[in-house]
Amino acid sequence: MLRVAVLVSGGGTNLQAIIDAQTSGVIKDAKVQLVVSNVLSAYALERAKNANIKTAVVRKKDFENVALWENALSDLLIENKIDLIVLAGFMTILSADFVNKFPEKIINVHPALIPSFCGEGFYGLKVHEAALEKGVKITGATVHYVNEIADGGKIIMQKAVEVKDTDTPEILQKRVMQQAEWDILPRAIQLIAEQTSDKTES
């Protein structure tokens, strides 16, 4: 069973999709063992508690510098024997030093079809604003491995979503979440669990 940690900053809708996928059996070879937030008031922590999942808060402002904060975060993940780290609305870019401690063990969901509308500065509503400004007819979401380049890691799974003429950034964001993010993020976790199991057995 793959031991998963989910890193969150906000409402935790992607976390809820993962929890629901565990219940429904979409995810059967992985289990969320830990939810970590960098924001004390993140509603995602309540979602985790409601599902009896261990939670922790590790805030940057409680440390003298980013390196010490990242060390505390990595120590927590190692202590909990985490196999896979899922960034689900985690609004902080992790340094190359942190990412390199967990090669191909960190994944992220991005609300666009990489390589479109990605990289530094493209997060949250900004992604959907850019897509609408460009006039694209298809957008979507991407689950990818995290490396030292923002949104630069290997793609694991993508799903396309139609853009409508009447869309606002908020409406498009909701459709991308419901039709793409909540679907492919749990399926990507299960896929990685299966691949990890295959490697272990071979």
Based on secondary structure, the structural category is alpha/beta
Spell the H/E element sequence: EHEHEHEHEHEEH
Radius of gyration: 16 Å
Distance from N terminus to C terminus (CA atoms, Å) equals 16 Å
List the helices and strands and how they pair.
Elements: E1 2-8, H1 13-24, E2 30-37, H2 43-50, E3 54-57, H3 66-79, E4 84-87, H4 96-101, E5 106-110, H5 125-134, E6 138-145, E7 155-162, H6 169-201
Parallel strand pairs: 1-2, 1-4, 2-3, 4-5
Antiparallel strand pairs: 5-6, 6-7
Helix pairs in contact: 1-6, 5-6
Summed up:
The protein has helices spanning 13-24, 43-50, 66-79, 96-101, 125-134, 169-201; strands at residues 2-8, 30-37, 54-57, 84-87, 106-110, 138-145, 155-162. The chain is an alpha/beta fold. The longest helix has 33 residues, at 169-201.
Describe this structure as you would to a colleague:
The protein has a 7-stranded mixed β-sheet with strand order 3-2-1-4-5-6-7, with helices on one face. It contains 6 helices and 7 strands. It is of the alpha/beta class and about 200 residues long. The longest helix has about 35 residues, at about 170-200. Helix 1 (about 15-25) crosses helix 6 (about 170-200) and helix 5 (about 125-135) packs across helix 6 (about 170-200).
